[in-house]
Amino acid sequence: MNKNAFRQLSYGVYVVSTWDKGRATGCTANSAMQITSEPATIAVSINHDNYTNQCIRENGKFAISILGEHSDPGIIGTFGFKSGRDNNKFDEVEQAVKGYMPVVADACAYIVCEVIDKMETSTHTVFLGKVVDADILKEDAAMTYAYYHNVIKGKSPKTAPTYIAEETPAPSTDGPKETKKEYVCGICGYVYDGEIPFEELPDDYVCPICKQPKSVFKEK
Predict the structure, then answer these.
(1) Strand 101-104, strand 217-219: pairing
(2) What is the mean pLDDT of each run of 10 residues along the chain (220 residues)?
(3) Based on the structure, what is the number of domains in the chain?
């Protein structure tokens, strides 16, 4: 079975947020969809290991911040590669309160939902939410999952519903070729293959996705 076929499905890039006893928290998600029009109902899939899953259960509401192509890609790393158990993620990202719920201010739109049902799988909870508020925050094209992978060159956290382990390519039998060196972030998997040699980047360089220092990068 070729799991890469799954990548032909359409996805966006979202931050699903809620309250944790008065503190805003959330996680990056790519599986969110409208399943009915009247009443408008949204489904989101959240891994059991994500702290946000527990908080949505306790709070009974969630918000979806729809990230745009011009949203800061660091938002994805903050909410996708750190745990809300140990980090106040919204301390690093500007928030707004819409429909009494925390949302990412740099998103292009938001949707606020009340949980009306849920379905359990072996790894994820699919929350069904009735929409109680929604609006456009700024004019921007919504970021697709393909854009995140192909343009931003980001990777999926292992808790993502669409996570596919990267396969190690077979060694070439065509003899040595001159190729540009690539360096991979050990935290989020971002690949640096820029024009400036990695060794010449300033010591204070940080990963544009998860904001980790240059020292966590390894040659690919």
Answers:
(1) unpaired
(2) 76 94 94 94 96 97 96 88 87 94 97 98 97 96 82 59 52 55 80 86 86 84
(3) 2
